[in-house]
Amino acid sequence: MTLILPGQTSTGQNWRSQNLVRPRTRIPVDAFRVALPHVGFHFGASRFSTIVEPEQRSTGPALATSFDGWYYRIHVLPLRIDLGNLVTNQVRYVRLWNAFLQQQNLTSVSLQGGEGIDLTGPGAPPLPFAPLQLRQWQLTVSTDGPPVITANLTFTFSVLGDRDITITGNRMSAWMLPPDWARPVVETLTWATDIQQSVSGAEARYPLRGSPRKTWEFSVLADRRERQVLEQAVFDWSARTWALPIWADVTWMSSALVLGVQSLSVPDATLKDFRVGGLAMLWKDVTTYELVEVAGITANALQLARPTANAWPAGTRLLPCRTARIDGTPSLERVTDQVMRSTVRLAAVETCDWPAIAPAATYRGRPVLEQRPDLDQAQTAEFGRQLVLIDGDIGPVAVDDINGKAWPLQSHAWQTWGRAEQAGLRSLLYWLQGRAASLWVPSWADDLELVEAAISTSSGIVVAWAGVARYGRAQAGRRHLRIELKDGRVLYRQLSVATELDPQREHLQLDVAHGIALQPDSIRLISWMVLGRLSSDTVELSHETDGEGVARCRVSFAGIGAEESEP
In whole angstroms, what is the distance from residue 105 CA to residue 159 CA? Predict the structure, then answer.
């Protein structure tokens, strides 16, 4: 049977273009019945003069509707439960909806690999599901059980078969003993960089890790009850995952916290190692602490995913946490029958990100390291060369300097005070990304002495004789200068040519005019600059105290002179 509707001819053409009085087109009625199964059709005379004519039944495919997507099946929510890192007992819910228009019978419920998981529901199977009925089960997951959770929950129906839910996660314990601050807490960042170097010294550097691997090493000193608790925890949990507090980022709560708070006041929260979705710890002593999940971070506050389960007095410590494992076999030194000392090293098992920020000062398109080194730590400098020794063990030894260039290697040490300086140093290290990024590194030494005044339009300076023309010759590593004035202004210049004026003076021709008048007594420091990168992918931060105090770091920069001429 076919519906002939107004508006088109039987060939699909517009009837107005043909001046037809009553155009018709044939549409199989079965198509309407498939698309709209609940709508009835009346066939006969209408105001459109619809005509019904018999026609062969359509053999085309049925059209899928939202009815087909929702009904005549069992809906299971959710199909997968990922518990993540479990540090407290967790409760999850499973819902089953019978979307059939007939009763279905649940014959059995089984939980495989569910040690430490309790399942409670509306009743024991066999359990009938009425048409369109929804039932709910509760899963209670305890911290007691295997370290790795891999369970499978199966609902079996008499006709329909199995419906499976996968449950995964990791059980963790909190590291509860603070470090012995008589020794520093050493935080180690380790990147990985693939470097391809040519004979000329040009490099192609490829970072292999988006974030560094991070470890913490610190000493602990425990006596009496603390020793007993720690030994038991390490005995049972040494191979598992810990929620490790970042002790250097401690916040002392200035006021008491009542039960059930979900917002915590944390000064400089963005400068500490909190992260959304991560963990934090409220700590009073080795046996009194609570782990909470961070849902949001603002400049001076934390929002928690769930209210706190305990009340906490003023003076409670709040610490960010990272998930970590003990690196190696823990060794405990029993000083007496009641006192224990140990040095532990834990490696993060999660990605440890931090904002990467390059230095603000730039020269020739590259950042300049403008942080002075800590002079309490002696700075070192080396000038290596790519030498090949040919020794036949009989005659003289032949030495070949392959490219005739010196490869400077100089150290740089920081002593940071307070959270802002420590956060800035960490951002610089993340930007350097191990050996991947390069920047200009001044020697921070008194390399040249200005002996004559220079006008602002001049591009040359006269300095005390230092062998620049004879030995430096504007080579890589000896062609870029940092000129610092006593008023704080800094000029970056490139040496074009050096000329000896007499045994006491040299003239240095620079690339651009000074722009300001230079007087010998107005200069604070003239230093050489070298374009360099870190010489190692591993960097150590030594925390002498918590974040309000001192942290030290020492690295070495390797020169890459072949890139100095690039803009």
Answer: 8
Alpha carbons 168 and 397: distance in angstroms, whole number: 66
Residue 478 φ then ψ, to 5°: -140, 40
- Tens-place pLDDT, residues 101-147: 999 999 999 999 888 899 998 988 899 999 999 999 999 998 777 76
Q: Are 366 and 440 in contact (CB under 8 A)?
A: yes
Task: Using alpha carbons, select from 340, 342, 280, 339 the residue that is nearest to residue 305.
Answer: 280
Q: Which value, to the nearest 10 degrees, does the dihedral of the CA atoms of residues 450, 452, 456, 461 take?
A: -50
Pairing of strands 80-86, 161-174: parallel
- Say how far apart CA 96 and CA 78 lie, in whole Å: 9
Residue-range domain boundaries for the chain: 1-63, 69-174, 185-348, 362-563
Spell out the residues 6+ positions from residue 236 whose beta carbon is closer than 8 angstroms to its own: none
Kindly report, residue by residue over 368-408, the tens digit of the pLDDT: 999 999 988 888 888 888 778 888 888 888 888 877 788 88
Whole-number Å distance between alpha carbons of 522 and 533: 32
Instruction: Flag whether the pTM goes above 0.85.
Output: no
Both tokens of residue 430?
Answer: 């993340």
Q: Which residues of 69-83 are buried (b: 16+ CB within 10 A; e: fewer)?
A: eeeeebeeeeeebeb
Q: Measured between alpha carbons, how far is 124 from 120 in angstroms, rounded to an integer?
A: 9
Q: What are phi and psi of 550, to 5 degrees?
A: -105, 140
Distance of CA 421 to the CA centre of its chain: 20
- How many beta carbons lie within 10 A of that of residue 111, not counting itself? 16
> What's the fold here for domain 69-174?
Immunoglobulin-like (2.60.40)
Residue 56 clears pLDDT 70, i.e. is over it: no
Residue with tokens 């021709």: 509
Asked if residues 221 and 153 have their Cβ atoms less than 8 Å apart, the reply is no
* Residue 204, both tokens: 């192609």
